[in-house]
Write a structure and sequence with these properties.
Elements: E1 3-6, H1 12-23, E2 28-32, H2 35-40, E3 48-50, H3 59-63, E4 66-72, H4 80-93, E5 98-102, H5 114-124, E6 128-134, H6 146-150, E7 153-156, E8 162-163, H7 168-180, E9 187-191, E10 197-198, H8 199-210, E11 215-218, H9 221-230, H10 235-249, H11 259-264, H12 271-277
Parallel strand pairs: 1-2, 1-4, 2-3, 4-5, 5-6, 6-9, 7-11
Antiparallel strand pairs: 8-10
Helix pairs in contact: 1-7, 4-5, 8-12, 9-10
């Protein structure tokens, strides 16, 4: 097998997958938009190559000598297909034969969703492909939800909906196998954690792990729109997030799969384990 190229290497999934592959001495190249930021995040510069979906001039050098490509779709991109498909075309022209596509749980329910369009385009190339469709990340509590948790509050428009949250490390473990081992062609892996939790449950678990009260307060879409825009989201991206939380409220993120254990042989992380392991992040 030839070299592996990872997009989104400074993101949560891409970064975790990169570290696993480097630990295993895989022939890997990491696509990053900002080399200085990648080094600040702990990625060895010798593995890094400048790559940006929005800059086609970075494609040729990035894909030279690459056999396998990990496509991480940009988060909250309302036109992800227009962003990613030109890179897929360039990768094919460069001789890439194998694609692992990271999208999201449930994209297969609507062929018109931008992420599903990416999957379908890759399927239609006739090259080897694997789709990885994770549910919401536990690790969001370490990023854009962290500030609220430190203050003891989670405000989201999730209602009473439940989600089978997954640890990014479990996603990376599945991705690493799909990128380096045979037997994954044509598979679509929906990845979840082992339990469906409401945000009330999440707050309760965090309260236990931290030894202090963390509360979840459901908020309206209007309140959430204001919150997302204040965080720097565009109106389009904020609307996209609201649609995602509507899906949560309807119960579509509650199903649980055994895919992580089937692919890796390991049980996925429980939220309680994750909370105790990351307590210092919320102090």
């Amino acid at each position: 097998m030839g070299a592996i190229f990872l997009t989104g290497a400074t993101g949560q999934v891409g970064g975790a997958t990169a570290r696993l592959l480097i630990e295993r001495d895989a022939d890997v190249r990491l696509g990053v938009r900002d080399l200085d930021r990648a080094e600040a995040l702990g990625l060895n510069p010798r593995y890094c190559t400048t790559f940006d979906y929005t800059r086609p001039e970075t494609y040729a050098t990035a894909f030279e000598g690459i056999d396998t490509l990990f496509l991480v779709t940009p988060p909250a991109d309302t036109q992800a297909d227009r962003t990613v498909i030109p890179a897929v075309k360039a990768a094919m022209e460069a001789g890439v034969e194998r694609f692992v596509v990271h999208t999201a749980m449930g994209v297969d329910l609507d062929d018109n969703l931008p992420m599903r369009r990416i999957e379908r385009f890759v399927e239609d190339t006739g090259r080897c492909y694997t789709h990885i469709r994770p549910n919401w990340f536990m690790n969001n509590t370490l990023s854009w939800l962290a500030g609220g948790i430190k203050n003891g509050d989670i405000f989201l428009p999730a209602g009473e909906g439940k989600t089978s949250f997954i640890d990014v490390q479990n996603i990376a473990q599945v991705a690493a196998r799909a990128l380096t081992q045979p037997g994954h062609h044509g598979k679509a892996y929906t990845l979840t954690g082992p339990e469906a939790l409401s945000y009330h449950d999440v707050a309760s678990i965090l309260s236990e792990a931290l030894g202090r009260l963390v509360r979840y307060t459901p908020i309206s879409d209007e309140q959430a729109q204001t919150a997302f825009t204040s965080m720097g989201y565009s109106d389009q991206a904020a609307a996209f997030m609201l649609n995602l939380f509507a899906v949560v409220r309807e119960g579509y993120t509650a199903p649980i799969t055994d895919t992580v254990k089937t692919v890796t042989g390991r049980d996925p992380t429980r939220f309680m384990q994750f909370a105790y392991a990351n307590r210092k992040a919320w102090e």
